[in-house]
Write a structure and sequence with these properties.
single chain; alpha+beta; 5-stranded antiparallel sheet; about 15% strand
Length: about 250
């Protein structure tokens, strides 16, 4: 070949080589671009995955909390059920007791009337210590039994209290003022009782003394030999003088 042809062939080959490089560079750029897009898409997908995972963990925590709360509520509900069952049993027991109260009342009310009658009879036959006060107490009990606003239990309590007071008369030493009937006269006097063993009376001028005879149900005047003892007995009962030995007209038991 001539030199011109060789040079032309070289120039054409160079252009051809350059053209092939230009053509082959475009697909490589596209590949880089696609790869970049893939990375961006992957990063976005990972973000979504992370977000979904976080939401899943939150839901799992909420689920576990709900399960724990459900268990707690079940235990608490079982506890309440036992309490309700116990209360229902208590209510049933109270209802049975309430149903039985009327039956108890039917027995207690007549008993109280008999107790009041017996108390009045006892006072009438007993040594008349604070006689009027005791009879007033019986009258109060009778009035109390007729009051609808007073419960049966309160009525019974006061009847028992009256019996307790009567029992105390047998062990107490007392001095009080009152009036006695003697030979058709009403005499103001100081009274002294040594339990139910002796009941004495002393005129307020301290010139006369009497002793109660429960067999004859009357007052008997004492001789002067007992006068000073009765005066001293009244004063001792009022704690005006120290307790001391005194001579009293006490009838011996048969």
């Amino acid at each position: 070949m001539s030199k011109r042809n060789l040079i032309a062939s070289a120039v054409i080959g160079a252009f051809a080589l350059g053209g092939s490089q230009v053509v082959s560079a475009d697909p490589l750029n596209d590949l880089h671009k696609e790869e970049a897009k893939i990375h961006v898409a992957a990063a976005q997908s990972q973000k979504k995955i992370n977000s979904i995972y976080e939401q899943t963990q939150e839901l799992l925590a909420e689920y576990r909390a709900v399960v724990d709360e459900t268990e707690n509520l079940k235990v608490y509900n079982d506890h309440l059920a036992r309490l309700v069952a116990d209360q229902e049993a208590g209510i049933a027991s109270l209802q049975r007791q309430i149903d039985g109260i009327e039956g108890v009342k039917r027995g207690v009310v007549p008993l109280m009337y008999r107790m009041i009658d017996s108390l009045e009879q006892f006072i009438e036959l007993d040594v008349p210590i604070n006689y009027q006060e005791r009879m007033d107490r019986v009258a109060h009990l009778r009035e109390l039994m007729g009051k609808s606003n007073v419960t049966t239990s309160e009525q019974f309590r006061q009847v028992l209290e009256a019996y307790q007071i009567e029992n105390e008369y047998g062990s107490r030493i007392r001095a009080y003022q009152g009036q006695l009937e003697h030979n058709g006269q009403t005499i103001a006097a100081d009274f002294f009782n040594l339990g139910r063993t002796a009941l004495l009376a002393l005129s307020l001028d301290q010139k006369n003394a009497w002793v109660w005879n429960n067999e004859s149900r009357s007052w008997e005047q004492l001789g002067d030999e007992y006068l000073s003892s009765v005066v001293k007995a009244v004063r001792m009962a009022r704690k005006l003088v120290p307790t001391d030995m005194i001579k009293l007209p006490i009838k011996a038991a048969e």
